[in-house]
Amino acid sequence: MKKRYLHHIEEEEEEMFPTAAKDLTAEEEEKLGALFAKRKPAELERAQAEE
After folding, report:
1. Which domain holds residue 23?
2. pLDDT at residue 38, rounded to an integer
3. Exposed, middle or buried: residue 9 (CB in 10 Å: 0-12, 13-18, 19+)?
C-alpha cells in the first residue's frame, strides 16, 4: 500500500500538477503550492507510520 501511495504522490508532483498549473493564475498556483507544501510532510509521515 505504501508503495502505491508514494507512487501516487510522485505521479501528482511530476505529471498532474504541472499540467494543471497551465490553467491556473499565478496567484492560484502560489496558494495551492503553499497548501501542498504545508500538508506534504504530514502526509509523508502518515504514510511511513502505516508501514
Report:
1. 2-49
2. 95
3. middle
Task: With CA atoms as reference, report the closest residue to 43 among 18, 22, 23, 13.
Answer: 13
Q: Which three cell numbers stand for residue 30?
A: 502560489
pTM: 0.54
d(CA 45, CA 28): 26
Q: Total structural domains in the chain?
A: 1
Grid coordinates of 32: 495551492
4-47 pLDDT per residue, tens: 888 888 888 888 888 888 899 999 989 988 998 999 899 888 88
